[in-house]
From TrEMBL:
One of its GO terms (molecular function) is ATP binding. It is found in: Cell membrane. GO terms for cellular component: plasma membrane. It is a peripheral membrane protein. This is Xylose import ATP-binding protein XylG. InterPro entries: AAA+_ATPase, ABC_carbohydrate_import_ATPase, ABC_transporter-like_ATP-bd, ABC_transporter-like_CS, P-loop_NTPase. Its EC number is 3.6.3.17. SMART domains: AAA. The lineage of its organism: Bacteria, Pseudomonadati, Planctomycetota, Planctomycetia, Pirellulales. Keywords: ATP-binding, Cell membrane, Hydrolase, Membrane, Nucleotide-binding, Repeat, Sugar transport, Translocase, Transport.
Amino acid sequence: MPEPLLRLISVSKRFGNTRALNDVSLNVEQGEVISLVGENGAGKSTLMKVLAGIVSPDHGQVQIDGVACQWTCPGDAIKAGIALIHQELSLHDNLTIAENLFLGRELTRGPDWLGWLDRSAMRTDTTQFLDRVGLSVSPDTPVSELPIASKQLVEIARALSVRARVVVMDEPTSSLSEDEAERLIQLIGKLKEDGVAIIYISHRLAEVIRISDRIEVLRDGCHVRTLTGDQIDHDLIVESMVGRELASRHHARRAGSGKSMLVVEDLRVGSRSATPICFQVAVGEVVALVGLVGSGRTEILETIFGVRPRWGGRVRVADQEISGDVNESIRSGIALVPEDRKQTGLLIQSDVRDNATLVAMGHTTPTKTRGRWISRKWQSSTADGLISQLRIKTASNRSAVASLSGGNQQKVALAKWLALDLRVLMLDEPTRGVDIGAKAEIYELIDGLARDGLAVLVVSSEMEEVFAIADRVLVISQGRIAGELGRDEMSEEAIMHLAVSQR
């Protein structure tokens, strides 16, 4: 039998007292698509960092074509034909697309000692790679001008530009629209035909099931199962990931009071000429804003909260009108958990205690501060209470948020608001990059908060999530409400019909 293209043999890695990987072995054949699945903290990212030369294993070996490899830096792995596409974008906004693609391996012309850059050749090659990923933009476009979905496609184009034999994709569709995700899946099929091996990491199990030749399951740093053929089944994947059978999540009707808590009247988002937006969210109700990427869902939340300027209209909370100032919104009981928890939702290098009490410290009482001094006793007791309430997995309230899994980071981003007396909770993509076990816990939290009387407004791109948590759906298209669907009217077809409507 010929040697597999890639082989990981008994790879182990510890970070202090934390065992990230324990004796993990994996083979990847040429032209094969395998998916690597597991809950956050299962070891997927660490394994891929070992493969890409970012992290050195304590034990074990990486082989290419049967030859043992020892990376001293990521460049060694790239030269060996391994490209890693990170979930967190690693592009340089101050450079053009072409400059990003060829950064560190620029094409030159003339004598080598002159070092003249061959910008024309780099632009030509960049255009070809952009065409392969379906992105029609000039290679001279500064990356800072691209939306996040286009930046993700540039990351993929950069991986292709190194002529990789193995491409590792870590949550590549998390920021893509349905059309862009479909183009990526078609691209994966073409790469497979060309003999490129794909290692695909995603929490979107529908994608995993669709594209995988084989699924490898990690749990607690160990390889626990290989699924092939008829075994590639949603329920079996979930059971393998979490080590237990998860009950199917079915939305249970909530007995809301019917009294409106959040009222939005004639709100103009982005400009004075924008179509006015009107809707209400009742006490104990969960309303989802859905629509295509770029439809304006996030902008609506940010305008209500006061992050973006309000160009007209009124917002009321419990019959109290608010002006559009962030501090006034907070005082009125409105919270916003943003989509990008690492950039705008958390102080990622600070500890859980400081993050969990961050907002409450800005609305101090004598029990929280003494003069200019913060009460550490109050901080610790408040943080510990939230850790218990949200079941945040952390060694202590002094652990750095950066050390937590994505699901637990998201819980901390939510926890900092629960230290206040909330009336309205707004969540933007609350489970982006979160594993299926943590998703179920976050859904339970949302349901519990609604049952306690909060009005909840959620932006979500996952239809399964919308059907799991929402009492009502508002479909956003081109910055306006294209339609409203009650619980009994919700379907993917009905939502998509409204989302693409032009009137």
